[in-house]
Amino acid sequence: MAKPAKTSLSVPQRRSSKQIDEPIVPEDDNDGLSPSHVRKEEGSIVWGLAILVPFAAMIAYIALIHQQTKTSSPTLDHLQGILLIPGLIPTLALTSIAPLLTYHVVKATKDAFLKKGFGGKDLLKGNSNKIPESLGLPTSIVYCLLMCSYIPFRYGMGKSDSPQRTARSLIDNADGGWSGDMHGQRDFPHHELSSYLSSLMSILSSVLLGFIDDVFDIRWRLKMPIPLLASLPMLVVYQAGHGGTSVVVPGWPTFLRTWLGARVITLGPLYHLFILLVSTFSVHSINILAGINGVEVGQALIIGISLCCNDVLYLDPRAGQPGSFASVELRDRHLFSLALLLPFCGCCVGLLTWNKFPARVFVGDTFCYFAGQVLACAGVLGHFSKTLLLFFVPQLINFALSLPQLFGLVPCPRHRVPNVDLETMSLHPSIALFTEERPAGTLAQIILQIFSALHLIKLEWREENKRKVLHSTTNLTILNAILVFRGALPLQRDASGRVENGHEKQATHKVQISERGLWWHVMLFQAFCSSVAFAVRYWIAAIVFPQ
To answer: Where is this region: Disordered (predicted)?
Structure first.
């Protein structure tokens, strides 16, 4: 298998002893930005919190007034019921402080990363300034600390055992020895807490492995199975909690259920393998869809928000009662998922402030491992792993596009990011060249011509022995595909790296998309696919999977 391209914006810098002895000191703490611009960035987060916190306080105040006055408004009754769902208020409180805390932690640590040699160059800016890298590490640390802060509010306020049992335990252990119970106290959500702790363990393992990848630049063939190891705690707890391993057979086409002789089939260990593959895919799919400022954080944020919206649909305060659309177990599963996702979205907002165009920090592989594992834990332990994949449609498309290069059918350069025209700062698709030593095979030509017919790639042919031979193709990533679909042409370069005569003029007559514009294209496409995912989950699924 060919080594896929590393699509990070930064060029990893090897840290020699000389570099460590002579650290890189940034010229300006604000990365060349004016004080007014910095104040604007900080003010945008403060402005968001200024809306969020009073709004949450207002809702809580209305609920308390309603509780005191005992009014009979159905809306207020429903609102109060939602706020009284266990663990929801601590989750909202942690979410409100996550953006500002992440912002200031990244600000305080970015120069330290640069001094230690964690810096890279932005390939699409045309300058040699080094930008701090691997700032996904402090972001993930902030998230994990917030998650640890959540534990006593959600699980430390439970009811204690009866006074009779406590007194009996003290008598039985009058020697001052340990008086606990290996089975734990009664009426306590032991499995939910174990699920929560296993999620933290898997996330922390992914953060550690991601940072090791940033430091040692692990080869792709070695890093592929890394998420499998990090997901084992999550899988064991899922199995211990009798997590479902059955799937519903589609009712359309109708012969499927007749042929299988069942409406539901049990996959057993195969379903556990599916869970591990989902975790692996969610981690690497975010890592592969990279190459422009803010795209890793942006896609993770939109997926997280989409999953939060899906969770909110099940927060029925009347769960388990007649007329409710959700059981208590179903509500608690999505509440558990929401507790993982809301603070994650808050941390992404704070990090995106630094990583958006023009990026002042790079997130590194650490963030990709961290974000993918959070989303996987929320989907798997929330028991909607199949629904989770619906929100990864752009990542699935990017993965499907990349397969010919990943499997060596098409040449795979180290960097597959788009090229930039430094005069106009517009982006153009990058290309992969076929050579006489490595021409395009028959299978590769068939696949590439299908992609070309869908306007996802641009092919260039040359004459050789009176027949057409495939000369080049645009790189097979969704970033290049969007540029090709919009009409941007590749910039052919000579051996010196200059644009060949005529190509720059030809490209100028086509649509011009800047790096910021391409980021918006990707984010809007991600949001559109999330909308389609909701339609598939709650409309089309009811048709394909009838009761």
So the answer is: 1-37
The answer to whether residue 181 is domain-embedded is no
The vertex-374 CA angle with 370 and 376, nearest 5°, equals 115
Judged by DSSP in three states, 131 sits in strand
Nearest in space to 289 (alpha carbons), one of 396, 217, 214, 406:
396
What end-to-end distance do the CA atoms of the chain give, in Å?
44
Distance (Å, rounded) from C-alpha 544 to C-alpha 536? 10
443 and 373 share a domain? Answer: no
Work out the angle at residue 302's Cα, subtended by the Cα atoms of residues 301 and 307, and round it to the nearest 5 degrees: 100
Rounded distance between C-alpha atoms, residue 81 and residue 218, angstroms: 49
**Mean pLDDT value across residues 427-450:** 92
Tokens read off for 226: 């890394």
- Strands of 87-174, DSSP E: 119-121, 130-132
Report yes or no: 448 and 440 within 8 Å, Cβ to Cβ.
yes
Q: Map residue 265 onto helix, strand or coil.
A: strand
Q: What's the length of the chain?
A: 547
Which pair of tokens denotes residue 205?
A: 């393992």
In angstroms, rounded to a whole number, what is the distance separating the alpha carbons of residues 95 and 481? 35
* Upper half-sphere CA count for residue 443 (Cβ side, 13 Å): 7
SS3 433: strand
User: What residue type is 70 in one-letter code?
Assistant: K
Are residue 251 and residue 146 in the same domain, yes or no? yes
Q: How far apart are CA 227 and CA 213, in angstroms?
A: 12
Residues 230 and 274 occupy one common structural domain? yes
CA pair distance 380, 465, nearest whole angstrom: 56
Residue at 34 is within a domain: no
Which runs of E-coded beta strand occur in 115-235?
A: 119-121, 130-132
What is the distance between the alpha carbons of residues 251 and 270, in angstroms, rounded to a whole number? Answer: 22
Pure H helices in 241-294? 255-260, 269-288
User: Could you tell me the pTM of the whole model?
Assistant: 0.84
